[in-house]
Amino acid sequence: MEKKCKSFETVKFQMELLMNVMDWGHYPFTRLIIQRGLSPSEYRELIDMVRDLNEKYRSQKKEGMLDFTSLLVQFAGMLHEKLDPNETIQAMKTEQVFPELMGEFLAILEREEN
């Protein structure tokens, strides 16, 4: 048991070192997932949730809807507590993860600020 604990601590330390030396400019979403310590299942839940929202977005857009605020509210409400909605949306957009949906969410947030 003690050996496993030391191995975990070693891997954790090595990951922290890598996080500090890598250029994460193109991968802010990946960095966010690592920094916030999402588990593989939490990550999969996030991606599945956003995939579902993206399908709803495309369907609603095809039907002629113009306001997607309800999807943004759903995203924020279902987002894991380890993640901030605004930061996650920006990171996903920058890393081109569901870029059209994230772009729409950013546009809604910008309109709300003004």
UniProtKB/TrEMBL annotation:
<protein>
    <submittedName>
        <fullName>Uncharacterized protein DUF1878</fullName>
    </submittedName>
</protein>
<dbReference type="InterPro" id="IPR035945">
    <property type="entry name" value="YhaI-like_sf"/>
</dbReference>
<dbReference type="Pfam" id="PF08963">
    <property type="entry name" value="DUF1878"/>
</dbReference>
<dbReference type="InterPro" id="IPR015058">
    <property type="entry name" value="DUF1878"/>
</dbReference>
